[in-house]
Amino acid sequence: MRVHHFDELSERTQHALATASPAGSLDIDPATSRLSRGDVVVFTDYVRVK
C-alpha cells in the first residue's frame, strides 16, 4: 500500500477520482496512473483503490 496526495496525481487521475461513483467505483487504468490496488489517496477524504 502506498499513500498518494491528490495534487501529485495527473489531471486525468484527479478527474477520475473526483467523478467516482457513490459506490466507489473508479475508471482508472493502473498502467497509465501511479495508482495500484490497495493504495490510498489523501484529499479532503481518503479513497482506497481496490
Taking pLDDT < 50 over at least 5 consecutive residues as the criterion, the unreliable ranges are none
- Give the termini distance in whole angstroms: 11 Å
Please summarize the sheet with the most strands: 3 strands, mixed
Beta-strand content: 15-25%
The helix count comes to 1
Radius of gyration, in Å, reads: 10 Å
- Average predicted confidence as pLDDT: 79
- Overall tally of domains: 1
**Assembly form of the protein:** single chain
Helix and strand sequence: EHEE
User: Largest sheet, order of strands side by side?
Assistant: 1-2-3
- Helix-strand makeup class: alpha+beta
Overall body shape:
globular
SS elements, strand count: 3
User: Percent helix among the residues?
Assistant: 10-25%
Biased composition (Basic and acidic residues): 1-14
Region (Disordered): 1-24
Write the layout of secondary structure elements.
Elements: E1 3-5, H1 11-18, E2 40-42, E3 46-48
Region (Disordered): 1-24
Biased composition (Basic and acidic residues): 1-14
Overview of the structural elements:
This protein is α+β, with helices and mostly antiparallel strands. It has one helix spanning 11-18, and strands spanning 3-5, 40-42, 46-48. Helix content is 16%, strand content 18%. The longest helix is centred in the N-terminal third of the chain and has 8 residues, at 11-18.
